[in-house]
Amino acid sequence: ASTAMDFDMSVKCDDEKLNAGDITKYYVDLCTGQYDMARKVYLRSILDSTLEYIGDSCNLEPKNVYEFNGKTIIKWDVGSLQPSEIKKIGYKVKVKNDAEGKLINKLNSNCINNSSYTQCPVSCKYVLEVD
Which of 1, 17, 79, 131 makes a 20 to 30 Å CA pair with 24? Predict the structure, then answer.
């Protein structure tokens, strides 16, 4: 029994392994299902404390960028997406000089399904390794 997908998110990155001081780019795809429009779509990226968001590197200006518990949090208000629409958001980060080990970018997104009026939270993460 398969159900139609309402809302989904995926993340890719130019790199998996990096060195301190390197810059890389994330690519996030937000996808709506084929039948329903999604409203009040947002995306939040929670960067590891040793990842630095590069301002003006994004194709969609974030609503806000702030620090919380040493991590940088970037939030985008995407608005509404039509059925089967894919919203692509790309942005760059720099690996800080003291970075080592695994650096995690946690992503979460949500929207309201315009037909059922239910929320559709999704989340994923991307792990970079610093040599």
Answer: 79
pLDDT in tens, 10-57: 999 999 999 999 999 999 999 999 888 999 999 999 999 999 999 999
Q: Domain locations in the chain?
A: 7-115
**CA-based torsion, 121, 125, 33, 88: positive or negative:** positive
Which of 46, 5, 24 has its CA nearest to residue 91?
24
3-class state of residue 62 by DSSP: coil
Q: Phi and psi dihedrals of 71, rounded to 5?
A: -100, 150
Measured distance CA(5)–CA(7) in Å, rounded: 6
Q: What is the pTM of this model?
A: 0.93
For residue 130, pLDDT over 90 is answered with yes
CATH code at 7-115: 2.60.40.740
**Phi, psi (5° rounding) for residue 105?**
-110, 110
